Inverse folding.
């Protein structure tokens, strides 16, 4: 716990047998995590079996692959059902360092923020950590466009390292979001839509063979999905469209 708040780490897992245990060990080494929840999205390797053998964890297994967004929906519901006050998503591929968990949890526990992002862009860690140059350029372009349309000033919208308060997770209607990768972007836009301030901390990352990464075709589809999300946000703000993701309350 931190400041009497229960900290739960969720790991959306898919074919992560090579890095899952290493990531888990560094997570629990931070000393403040009360529970680790694994959601295995119908992996074809031994991800579920390895997770089942780790202490102080709960494992949920999808019989069929539900996609990255569908996996997260199960993650956050399970965390809330298990009494989480602070929920931190850590990918089990060891791309993001779990050593930032105490810092991210602290920013939420003190009541200043309800969402904290581990940014690969702050501090220039993306390219230093091995992010492919084409992916970096796409990240910068999308973030620039999204900041203009959404009206925020984030360094990036595309990190998978995120911490949330219980309040913000209960406020969002996550089930209506995509089950694909654009879920991340929709969720972040919703948080801003409801007026929550988003904090960012500089996060070093690692890119290596075992680290998960979407392929080029998925990346293109994700990019267009991000732009559509941001455009829908702006049009809904202007009351030119109605969107279930961005509800307008009179």
């Amino acid at each position: 716990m931190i400041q009497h708040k229960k900290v739960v780490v969720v790991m959306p897992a898919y074919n992560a047998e090579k890095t899952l245990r290493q990531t888990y060990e560094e997570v629990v080494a931070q000393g403040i995590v009360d529970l680790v929840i694994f959601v295995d999205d119908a992996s074809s390797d031994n991800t579920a079996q390895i997770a089942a053998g780790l202490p102080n964890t709960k494992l949920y297994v999808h019989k069929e692959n539900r996609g990255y967004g569908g996996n997260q929906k199960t993650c956050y519901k399970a965390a809330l059902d298990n009494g989480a006050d602070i929920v931190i998503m850590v990918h089990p591929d060891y791309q993001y360092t779990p050593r930032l968990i105490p810092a991210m949890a602290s920013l939420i526990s003190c009541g200043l923020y309800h969402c904290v992002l581990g940014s690969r862009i702050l501090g220039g860690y993306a390219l230093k950590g091995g992010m492919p140059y084409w992916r970096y350029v796409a990240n910068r372009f999308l973030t620039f466009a999204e900041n203009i349309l959404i009206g925020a000033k984030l360094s990036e919208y595309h990190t998978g390292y995120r911490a949330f308060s219980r309040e913000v997770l209960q406020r969002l209607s996550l089930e209506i979001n995509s089950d694909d990768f654009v879920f991340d972007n929709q969720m972040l836009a919703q948080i801003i839509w409801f007026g929550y301030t988003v904090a960012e901390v500089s996060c070093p990352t690692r890119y290596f063979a075992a680290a998960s990464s979407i392929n080029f075709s998925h990346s293109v589809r994700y990019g267009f999905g991000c732009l559509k999300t941001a455009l829908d946000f702006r049009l809904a703000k202007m009351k030119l469209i109605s969107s279930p993701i961005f509800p307008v309350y009179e």
In short: The two ends are 39 Å apart (CA to CA).
